[in-house]
Write a structure and sequence with these properties.
The structure holds 2 protein chains of 2 kinds. By secondary structure, chain A is of the alpha/beta class. Helix content of chain A is 36%, strand content 23%. Chain A has helices at residues 42-49, 95-102, 111-116, 119-138, 154-167, 184-199, 212-218, 236-241, 243-250, and strands spanning 4-13, 16-26, 31-35, 57-62, 65-66, 80-82, 172-176, 204-208, 221-226, 229-234. Chain B is mainly α. The longest helix of chain B is centred in the last third of the chain and has 29 residues, at 272-300. Chain B has one domain (36-351): ABC transporter involved in vitamin B12 uptake, BtuC. Chain B has 15 helices and 4 strands. Chain B has a two-stranded antiparallel ribbon. The chains are: A alpha/beta, B mainly alpha. At the A-B interface, helix 2, helix 3, helix 4 and helix 5 of A face helix 1, helix 8, helix 9, helix 10 and helix 11 of B.
């Protein structure tokens, strides 16, 4: 059984069909990339999985459970973490606090216990902190631990957002354009991290990315979208060679 | 410059980062405890007023500074806390029970109010809460059988284990009572900030979309913020009632709500210090102004000339100046001055300049 399974999902905004009868599945342990021109519906697919949008029709299931039964804030509990295309960090908090919010799904204490800061809350804080420190070590974020997000450069924010998603110990990681706006070196780092996330941590990765170098470097399978519908699916090489994909990107007609 | 050499996670979790700051706050508390022996009754009363405002400020800070939900309705919750505490005491409930109950009642009402309020953002929430503040006046009049409406109520004498506490006859005991409540509220606030719920508050404030994606239930978190904020405000309201001695439907007007919001903005949004700094300004400024106008009036030979709207005008000017030149409030300025001394002579002029925030995913909402 696939980890994530999307069947015949359709989403319309008024007359615009953002996602059109789309079906695909992501297997446990693989890196699955979604590519496509701007406006193809890539981020919309993510927002469907995150339950920010309700599909018009179709089904989405994660590890056999129906995702459509859940509210957006209950998706994280299943072990689905995500990043955003336009970086959605908590700007007026430190890197550490941002990463600790990633641990929110593991919160075990209630409000009264936290107001009194009982020994249990303290113990839990140590556990959360340890998990966050593993992420900080993994992503080399040590110099920024106590820095405010509002003062950090774009590239670092991108990494912090990845870290926040990782801090929640997800089973499925959704990366929305992890390399957009990054320099060549930073993109290279991102590539190694995605590799390690899959190999060392055993986390399944679903990503949207424009950088074909990164996509062909890390992903096992690629889905090409255009106008909300599936254009091609297969290994990076297969998709890149697909005539329909080339047509969607470059256009057709005599040169 | 002090350098924190952290050797365990506990360094970041415990209340005081190092021994020095522990001593500073211990000295502050010790100084606050012996204050009645140092000040005469008038100034002790003023300091008590500052502390009561600081508690109310902590309440609103939790909601506005921490969770990002502006409220112009907190005067209504002050009133609710005040009336419920004193009505309970009139029915024979001892203060030690009536006072926390007043907080709980106000907190429950705050949570109920959150049910419609969580759907509102920004300015719309401010308008809705302001309506609450204006309504409170009428509701108190309508509930005259309990609240004595326009004629108002007198605060009874507080008795704790046979010890009588009254604002005028025993101002020192009343001051200590307020001090204890202040310290407990501050501790609770501090505890919240280092726990998951406090971080969830900040997450809701900065990005509801990604807070949701991280598993934070937005409506529940906002309701918790409203509840806790109103509970603290209710406690402050009860103390305000005892401090004023007598109160009626006009005591907790919308002006109080606006002053409260101004207070936390001037003090510095999102910090405990800000509530205290703001309270000092709000509580002392009227006194300072009347003293100043007396002096100037005396110099000009015109005695007891009250300039209409002077207080409001000065408050407004201060608020505008802060928003223009120091959006982080007095606490922000304090941090800058402290950093300058700590790093001397290496502080740079643009150290606190913030990069502008990048485009947010607004289209999801």
């Amino acid at each position: 059984m696939s980890l994530l399974e999307i069947k015949n999902a359709t989403l319309k905004f008024g007359g615009v069909v953002a996602v059109n009868d789309l079906s695909f599945s992501v297997e446990e342990g693989e890196v699955y990339a979604i590519v496509g021109p701007n406006g193809a519906g890539k981020s919309t697919v993510f927002n469907l999985i995150s339950r920010f949008y309700d599909p018009y029709s179709g089904s989405i299931s994660f590890d056999g459970a129906n995702l459509l039964d859940r509210h957006a804030d209950a998706v994280a509990d299943l072990g689905i973490a995500r990043t955003f295309q336009n970086i959605e960090l908590f700007d007026h908090a430190t890197v550490l606090q941002n990463l600790l919010v990633g641990r929110h799904r593991h919160r075990k204490s209630n409000m009264i216990q936290e107001l009194l800061f009982t020994p249990r809350v303290r113990r839990e804080e140590h556990v959360h902190r340890e998990a966050v420190e593993r992420v900080i070590d993994f992503l080399d974020l040590q110099p920024y631990r106590n820095k405010m997000i509002a003062g950090l450069p774009y590239g670092v924010r991108k990494v912090v957002e990845l870290g926040r998603a990782l801090a929640s110990d997800p089973r499925l990681l959704l990366l929305d354009e992890p390399a957009s706006g990054l320099s060549v070196e930073e993109t290279q780092d991102m590539r190694w991290w995605i590799d390690d996330i899959r190999k060392q941590m055993g986390i399944t990765v679903l990503m949207v990315e424009h950088d074909m170098g990164l996509v062909s470097g890390v992903s096992d399978r690629v889905l090409a979208l255009a106008d909300g519908a599936k254009l091609a699916e297969g290994t990076p090489a297969e998709v890149q060679a697909d005539p329909a994909v080339i047509a969607a990107y470059l256009g057709t007609g005599a040169v | 410059m002090r350098i924190h050499f952290k050797t365990s996670y506990e360094n970041d979790i415990r209340l005081f980062p190092d021994r020095w700051s522990f001593f500073v706050y211990a000295a502050l508390v010790a100084g606050a405890i012996i204050l009645p022996w140092l000040l005469d009754d008038f100034f002790l009363g003023e300091v008590t007023n500052v502390l009561i405002w600081a508690i109310a400020g902590l309440g609103l800070m939790l909601l506005t500074g921490q969770t990002g939900q502006a409220s112009l309705g907190h005067a209504a919750f002050l009133a609710l806390g005040c009336y419920s505490c004193i009505i309970l005491m009139e029915h024979g409930v001892p203060f030690l029970l009536a006072f926390p109950l007043a907080g709980v009642i106000t907190g429950i009402f705050g949570t109920l109010f959150a049910i419609p309020a969580v759907r509102l953002h920004g300015i719309y929430l401010a308008i809705a809460t302001m309506a609450l503040s204006i309504l409170a006046d009428d509701i108190i009049v309508m509930l005259a059988p309990w609240t004595d409406g326009v004629s108002g109520k007198f605060a009874p004498t507080i008795t704790i284990f046979g010890l009588e506490i009254e604002r005028w006859t025993t101002p020192d005991r009343f001051y200590w009572l307020v001090l204890v409540v202040t310290i407990l509220c501050t501790l609770a606030y501090r505890n919240l900030l280092r726990a998951p719920l406090g971080r969830a508050f900040a997450a809701v404030r900065d990005s509801e979309v990604s807070a949701t994606a991280m598993g934070v239930h937005i409506a529940f978190t906002k309701a918790a913020a409203f509840g806790l904020s109103c509970a603290i405000t209710g406690l402050a309201g009860a103390l305000m009632g005892f401090y004023a001695g007598a109160f009626n439907n006009e005591t907790f007007s919308v002006v109080i709500s606006i002053s409260l919001l101004m207070m936390i903005v001037i003090g510095g949004l999102g910090s405990i210090h800000g509530a205290f700094f703001g309270a000092i300004i709000i509580a002392f400024l009227p006194q300072a102004l009347s003293m100043a106008s007396d002096t100037i009036g005396g110099l000009l030979g015109a005695n007891n000339v009250a300039i209409p709207g002077l207080e409001t005008g000065v408050f407004g000017a201060i608020l505008i100046l802060f928003i223009m030149f120091e959006p982080m409030g007095i606490y922000g300025r304090w941090l800058k001055i402290r950093t300058w001394f700590e790093l001397f002579p290496f502080a740079r002029k643009d150290m606190f300049k913030r990069q502008k925030s990048y485009l947010k995913t607004e289209r999801l909402r």
